[in-house]
C-alpha cells in the first residue's frame, strides 16, 4: 500500500501493514527503490519513524527473511541489504 506524505512533500511512499508476534498490527515503511513484498510474507522490522508519514513508526529491514535487498545499489548498501557488486 502507499501513503502520501505531509505538506510540503509530495510522493507515494511504500508502506506495509505488519502483524507482530505479539498480535499488534503496525504500519512499517519499506525503504529503497522497489520491493518484492506480498501478503503473508515474513519480515523483520526495526524502530525509527518516517518524519513525513504520520503514524509510521517502524522500518522494514531489507535483505532479511522474505524481503530482498535493493538491486543495483552502490552506496549505503548495508542499509538496503545489497551485496557488493562485482568489479
From TrEMBL:
The keyword Nucleotidyltransferase does not apply. The keyword Ribosomal protein applies. GO terms for molecular function: rRNA binding; structural constituent of ribosome; tRNA binding. GO terms for biological process: translation. Keywords: Ribonucleoprotein, Ribosomal protein, RNA-binding, rRNA-binding, tRNA-binding. It comes from the Bacteria. SUPFAM superfamilies: Nucleic acid-binding proteins. InterPro entries: NA-bd_OB-fold (IPR012340), Ribosomal_uS12 (IPR006032), Ribosomal_uS12_bac (IPR005679). GO terms for cellular component: small ribosomal subunit. It holds the Pfam family Ribosom_S12_S23. Belongs to the universal ribosomal protein uS12 family. Part of the 30S ribosomal subunit. Contacts proteins S8 and S17. May interact with IF1 in the 30S initiation complex. Interacts with and stabilizes bases of the 16S rRNA that are involved in tRNA selection in the A site and with the mRNA backbone. Located at the interface of the 30S and 50S subunits, it traverses the body of the 30S subunit contacting proteins on the other side and probably holding the rRNA structure together. The combined cluster of proteins S8, S12 and S17 appears to hold together the shoulder and platform of the 30S subunit. This is 30S ribosomal protein S12.
